Amino acid sequence: MKTKLITVGLVIFAFLIFGCLGNKGDVALTEPGSNRKINYNGIELIMEFNFWNIKEFNGSAELAYYRSNNTIMFYANLSGVVMKEPHRYVQGYPEVIYGYKPWTGHKTQGDLPIKIKELESFEVTLNYSLWHERDLPINLAMETWITAEEKAKEIKEGDVELMVWLYSNSLIRPAGSKIDITKTKIVVNSTLREVEWEVWLYCNALPWDLITFRLKEPIKSGEIRLDVTPLLSTAKEVFEENLCRVEKFDELYLEDWEVGTEFGGPHSRSANFGWQISKFEINDGR
C-alpha cells in the first residue's frame, strides 16, 4: 500500500495575511494564471493562481509556499472585480493540484491518472480552515476531472467534472439541479460520522457533464478523512440512470485531485478571504 503525504498550511486570520506581504515565501505567486511546481518532502504538487473568470481587479492576492514549515498560504483582498463571463457565476478557484490537470497539461509525479475500475480505494485526509467576509459567495471544494482519454489535452463530451463541497455558504450553490441525497461515513476530527451529501447534476449544458456532492452540514474548519470511492459509485449510478453523455464510467480516467475555493458571483465586486490546509494525504490503496 502506497500513501502520498501532502502537508500544506495556509493563513486564515487577517493580521497574519497582511503580515505575509512583508514575509515572502520561498515560492510566491501574485499574477493570475501563474502556477508553480513545488517539492514537498519528495512529493510534487502544483500551486495554481487560478482567477480564470476575472478580467480585472484592484487590491492584492498571493499564493505562497513556505519551505521552513511546509505551508502554502493564500489570501485575497480584492475590490473593483470585473468578470470575464458573469453568467459563469464564480470568479476563480485558487488551488493546489496533485496529478494531471487537463486544462493546463501540467502533471505532478505520482500515480494519477488511473482508471476508475482500478481504484481499490481513494482515501483523502484534509485538515483545513477558511475565513471570509460575510457577503462573499464561497465554498471550499475538492474536484477531479474524469476523462475518456488518459492525460486528455481537452475536456469534451463524455468527460466528467466531479466536485466534493466540504463547505459552502448560502450565497453559492452547485450548478444544475439537486436530484438526490446520499450518505457516507467520514471521520471528522477523529470521530467517525455518517454524513449526508446533496447530489447535484448538470448534464448536456457544458461540453462535459458535472456532478457535485455537497455536505448538507458544511464543515468550515477541521480534519476530515473520507473514502471517495462510495461517491464515485454513486456518480456511476447517477450517470447510468440519467440522460447524460457519460458512457462506461468505470473505464474513464481519474486525472487529478484538486483542493481550492470557488468564490464570487455576478454581483460581487469585492472578495476578502483566506484559507489554511495543514494536512493533505491521499491513499489509493496500491
From TrEMBL:
<dbReference type="InterPro" id="IPR013319">
    <property type="entry name" value="GH11/12"/>
</dbReference>
<dbReference type="InterPro" id="IPR013320">
    <property type="entry name" value="ConA-like_dom_sf"/>
</dbReference>
<dbReference type="InterPro" id="IPR002594">
    <property type="entry name" value="GH12"/>
</dbReference>
<dbReference type="GO" id="GO:0000272">
    <property type="term" value="P:polysaccharide catabolic process"/>
</dbReference>
<dbReference type="GO" id="GO:0008810">
    <property type="term" value="F:cellulase activity"/>
</dbReference>
<comment type="similarity">
    <text>Belongs to the glycosyl hydrolase 12 (cellulase H) family.</text>
</comment>
<protein>
    <recommendedName>
        <fullName>Endoglucanase</fullName>
    </recommendedName>
</protein>
<dbReference type="Pfam" id="PF01670">
    <property type="entry name" value="Glyco_hydro_12"/>
</dbReference>
